[in-house]
Specification:
Elements lengths: L6 E3 L3 H12 L4 E4 L4 E6 L3 H11 L8 E3 L3 H7 E2 L2 H10 L4 E7 L13 E5 L4 H10 L3 E2 L14 H8 L5 E3 L11 E4 L7 E4 L5 H8 L4 E2 L25 E5 L4 H6 L4 E5 L11 E3 L6 H16 L5 E5 L6 H14 L3
Parallel strand pairs: 1-9, 4-7, 6-10, 11-12, 13-16, 14-15, 14-16
Antiparallel strand pairs: 2-3, 3-8, 4-8, 5-6, 6-7, 10-11
The structure holds threonylcarbamoyladenylate and magnesium ion.
């Protein structure tokens, strides 16, 4: 078996046209979006899509998100409806993925055999250039080995998939840092959030003017039919993660040695080599941006256990952050 070693490309015009050519000819390329890095391939080419599944060791039951340039593509690849168009008009390009009934040109390998497709128009300028230059919709799951923490830098991609893919486009750190909000709009009147993200439930409700249901706790593999691929244990580091509603000095003092303590904001009365904070002020957008990098960094720091403080509340960005923390902490 030949060993592939990934090359990291800057976003120069020459590199972009080269990578677009790779995509057009059925290859796969890891590329930045505003949420996380994706592993992209031509969504209309089943062979290219199979390469994505193989590189990630992703089970064929877990469907891929299809990235498109904009609103016009909604009815090209799916059967749109008025709710979907309203949301796309408001939030695209951006971190919102819309699930709709698929048209037949979307191969079943992309949708993992179901009759729906998840569409998103990403905002990252480099990813959009690849979409334009390649001229095809790009299927792209997060560019990490299946089950591990999503990558928010090119280096994260290289460390996880560097031996399994050849092309990584470097766009620096992702601005949002958590995967897109996924909303199921197959039934226009009964929208349902399948995965919380930076576009919040209340933002969606304001546009649609109907209540939006949210999928409660993440399903186990056996329930994968409900929302494919949303295993409880996902985004998981190898080190065990323990969640705390709040952290304070006494939690740290009561804990055993060799544990990391991750506060949301810089704590005033605790210090030490094993004390971390997500953001000096605990600003939730900045917490989201740095969460996956923190999980990765602490995962290789040799701690026996990682203690994380949850974000306060159940709405907005807190919902998205706590969802990822719960997945990181899930045992199975
Ligand atoms: O922000 C994001 O969404 C990133 C970037 C790269 O765009 N992508 C991403 O993809 O997070 P991935 O593969 O890690 O997550 C895709 C998830 C699947 O696990 C599944 O839960 C959901 O999207 N999905 C895809 N197609 C679906 C469908 N037809 N019906 C329901 N859920 C679907
Ligand atoms: Mg993923």
């Amino acid at each position: 078996m030949s060993k592939l070693v990934a090359r990291v490309f800057s976003g120069s015009p020459v590199n972009l046209s080269r990578l677009a050519k790779v995509l057009r000819s059925g290859g796969i390329v890891a590329a930045p979006t505003e949420t996380v890095y994706g592993l992209a391939g031509n969504a209309l080419d089943p062979k290219a899509c199979r390469k994505i599944f193989r590189a990630k060791l992703r089970p064929a039951t877990d469907p891929l998100i299809v990235h498109v340039l904009g609103l016009d593509d909604l009815d090209r690849y799916a059967y749109g409806n008025s709710s979907a168009r309203l949301l796309a008009r408001k939030f695209w390009p951006g971190p919102l993925t819309i699930v709709l009934r698929k048209r037949t040109m979307i191969p079943s390998v992309v949708s993992a055999g179901r009759n729906s497709v998840a569409l998103r128009s990403p905002a990252h300028p480099l990813f959009r250039r690849l979409l334009r230059l390649s001229g095809v919709p790009l299927a792209a799951p997060s560019a990490n080995p299946f089950g591990y923490v999503s990558p928010t830098t090119a280096e994260h991609v290289r460390s996880g998939l560097g031996l399994r893919i050849q092309h990584i486009l470097n766009g620096g750190s992702c601005a949002i840092g958590l995967e897109s909000t996924i909303v199921d709009l197959r039934d226009a009147k009964r929208p349902r959030i399948l995965r919380p993200g930076a576009i919040t439930r209340s933002q969606i409700e304001q546009v649609l003017k109907v209540p939006v249901r949210e999928r409660r706790s993440a399903g186990r593999y056996a329930q994968a039919q409900v929302a494919p691929g949303m295993l409880t244990r996902h985004y998981s580091p190898r080190t065990s993660v323990i969640l705390h509603a709040v952290l304070d000095k006494s939690s740290v003092l009561s804990g055993a040695q060799n544990q990391a303590w991750v506060f949301l904001a810089k704590p005033s009365r605790v210090s030490g080599k094993n004390i971390y904070w997500m953001d000096r002020q605990g600003d939730l957008e900045r917490v989201a941006r740095g969460l996956f990098a923190m999980l990765r960094r602490l995962d290789v720091a040799g701690y026996a256990r990682l203690n994380f403080e949850c974000a306060p509340g159940k709405e907005g960005m807190a919902a998205a952050i706590n969802d990822r923390l719960r997945r990181a902490a899930a045992k199975a």
